[in-house]
Amino acid sequence: MEAKVAGSASMSLGDEIVRRINALAAISETSEHLTRIFLTPEHRAAADLLMTWMREAGMQAHLDAIGNVCGRYEGERPGLPCLMLGSHYDTVRDAGRWDGPLGLITAISCVGDLNRRGRRLPFAIEVTGFADEEGVRFASTLLGSRAIAGTFDESALGSRDRAGTTMRQALTLFGLDPDHIGAAARAPGELLAYVELHIEQGPVLEAEKLPVGVVTAISGATRLAVELRGMAGHAGTVPMALRRDALAGAAECIVAIEEFCCTDRDGLVGTVGYINAMPGATNVIPGMVSFTIDIRTAKDSYRKLAVADIVRQIEEIVKRRNLKLDINVTHENRTVPCAPWLKQQVADAVAAEGFHVFELPSGAGHDGMAMIDIADVAMLFVRCRGGVSHHPDEHVEDADADAGARVLLRLIENFKPKA
Amino acid sequence: MEAKVAGSASMSLGDEIVRRINALAAISETSEHLTRIFLTPEHRAAADLLMTWMREAGMQAHLDAIGNVCGRYEGERPGLPCLMLGSHYDTVRDAGRWDGPLGLITAISCVGDLNRRGRRLPFAIEVTGFADEEGVRFASTLLGSRAIAGTFDESALGSRDRAGTTMRQALTLFGLDPDHIGAAARAPGELLAYVELHIEQGPVLEAEKLPVGVVTAISGATRLAVELRGMAGHAGTVPMALRRDALAGAAECIVAIEEFCCTDRDGLVGTVGYINAMPGATNVIPGMVSFTIDIRTAKDSYRKLAVADIVRQIEEIVKRRNLKLDINVTHENRTVPCAPWLKQQVADAVAAEGFHVFELPSGAGHDGMAMIDIADVAMLFVRCRGGVSHHPDEHVEDADADAGARVLLRLIENFKPKA
């Protein structure tokens, strides 16, 4: 790979990106585990480092009202509408170093490359480091991109973190004014498009042996909370025929959900990630079980049908077992399709760099889910090892980081606003 | 029921037993939830109250070296071997009031009845309140009965409760000498038999519409700890076909265990009471699941075959799903059969009191499991409402407490040592 691109500008980009990924990963709550939570001192230190890199790349840089890092590289003349690039710079707890920072740092490095070459385009480029995509600290996610899209819900300011600090207090401590978050909102006419590069966080590109992939849509998701109530009892004294075992019922539901999704041919995924059986003792028949269901697919109408089918199956199981059921939708978000005109330009850039054009949906959520309210959205995925993400083992090969940068740079230089 | 037995001595026994059950239940760690744990101040207060009642019943009473409450009612002459009656006076957390105390208080009241009538028998009667049957505080159970049977494991003295206190320290604080627990052991020749009355803790007698039942055996049990390891992953990004979901695998195992036990015709019961899925987030495919299995039946050879069959099924499921399995037996106890000669005397007493003789195994463990090492054992079960036990709703009807007392008193008065 190195030989193939030796001497090209993008080769040095790849090196720079990996170096910066490592530098940013050193800014963490603890030195053993990468954790960088919204509005903490390390979050602020990371913002400062990102702004330094932005300025080195020839951009103006500032923090907006919610803590987004905003860099702007003017076009052929000042004040032109922008192509916005970006990703988030907060992390989950005990995170990998690539989820978020790869897209952000790659965008900064691409701009730096243009700047070194004195290249100005017929549009501005803005790079945004979104302050909170993971939603670890407060109850809501996508806080940074929602503020930019003008859809930030001010009632979230009253929500508290585990220590009891409100978002309002945290913003003030960070040096921001919680009464002026509206100032972060952008006018739709200022943005020509939003394009995000991100690690795939799944194993599909690896299975396809491809460094990059073109995202078709960010899949919609429905999350359900299920509670089954039966009758607790002594594990030794209640004959099988007299039991109303809530965990055996939940197990049958989990098997049914998996089977339903596995027989699907349209990319439906269903996950039970959390389960709790009460009272939870070896020698007591569980009287109550709660579990969650997460259902995703790239077509909203299809997801809704699937959820209804799954709920119907659970109702049948529960009725047959004489259990009580409480089932609620706790979260629902619609599919965000990537704009065909923009997705085509991403695909063209992939092909121009010599890679097979492979399309896939994003099962994970991204800032594009909020940005769709203010601009057309597209995404480029970069392969990550084993599909592992949200884990210290998260890894992107140097060559893949470089491939992503080359595609993104090609996309920027060839970008044509929507006709 | 009252009309039927009005004026008999045993009627007043029933009233006295229920009154004492309620008085003992007031001695608890907290006033809202009945909790009386081994070697706590409330455990000591309960022991004192029990000894008061024993002395009122004409017995000598003392605490032995492990904290068992020991009462002795001499026979026709001092120093005769005894028929030992008893049950435990510790409780689980948030317990019912009948589990343990019913058998102990009924035995005291029966002796009190003999004493009021000046009745002496050709054998002594001893009533033992076992100090720790539930094993809530330290890792081991049956501490009281093991000490009497001479099978107490002295290494348990080093085990610690949640607060870090060792059993040795707790015994000392209670006023006992941990270096002389051996003094609690009885010689086999001192005991003619051990008979325990206990609530059923299951729903069988209720289903049979019978106040009492004759126990055939205390079922042996095998407990297993199972750990399945797959691959954690993002709930949105990993296609179903590429998953190694440890919870879906565990669910299939739980369904298989239930099905296996349900198709059995010989009283086999299997329970998964505890489950934990890691990392346990709505949007993460579980990479690791641990759960427990509890298997019981009244025939040891049959239980072993059943455990082997279940393990084989789990191995097949795990292999097909490409998961890693760690499965270990964490606890195993053999079936304790009730001695035929003694069980027959219990059955005769049941019949003499006008009840249908119904036999059933005990799926729950009892002090008889330890006492078998020093004496032949039999048990009489009393119906409990809904089969509920280890719960504040645990309940025995007054009439059933009375029925149990009449049967036990009849058994004592007609008792014939083994020929």
What is the structure about, briefly put?
Chain A is of the alpha+beta class and 419 residues long. In chain A, 35% of the residues lie in helices and 22% in strands.
Please characterize this protein's 3D structure.
- 2 copies of one chain form a homodimer.
- The first copy, chain A, has 419 residues and is of the alpha+beta class.
- Chain A has 2 domains: 14-217 and 339-414, Zn peptidases (Aminopeptidase), CATH 3.40.630; 220-333, Alpha-Beta Plaits (2-Layer Sandwich).
- Helix content of chain A is 35%, strand content 22%.
- In chain A, the strands form 3 sheets. In chain A, strands 1, 2, 3, 4, 5, 6, 14, 15 and 16 form a 9-stranded mixed β-sheet that branches.
- In chain A, helix 4 (101-116) links the parallel strand 3 (82-88) and strand 4 (124-130).
- In chain A, helix 4 (101-116) crosses helix 12 (398-414) and helix 10 (340-352) crosses helix 12 (398-414).
- Chain A is globular, with a radius of gyration of 23 Å.
- The model of chain A is unreliable at 1-11 (pLDDT under 50).
Query: Helix proportion of residues of chain A, in percent?
Result: 25-40%
Strand-pairing-aware structural class of chain A:
alpha+beta
Low-confidence stretches of chain A: 1-11
Oligomer: homodimer
Report the CATH superfamily of the largest domain in chain A.
Answer: Zn peptidases
The secondary-structure element order of chain A is HHHEEEHEHHEHEEEHEEEEHEEHEHEH
Task: Quote the average pLDDT of chain A.
Answer: 94
Computed Rg of chain A: 23 Å
The proportion of strand residues of chain A reads: 15-25%
Number of domains of chain A: 2
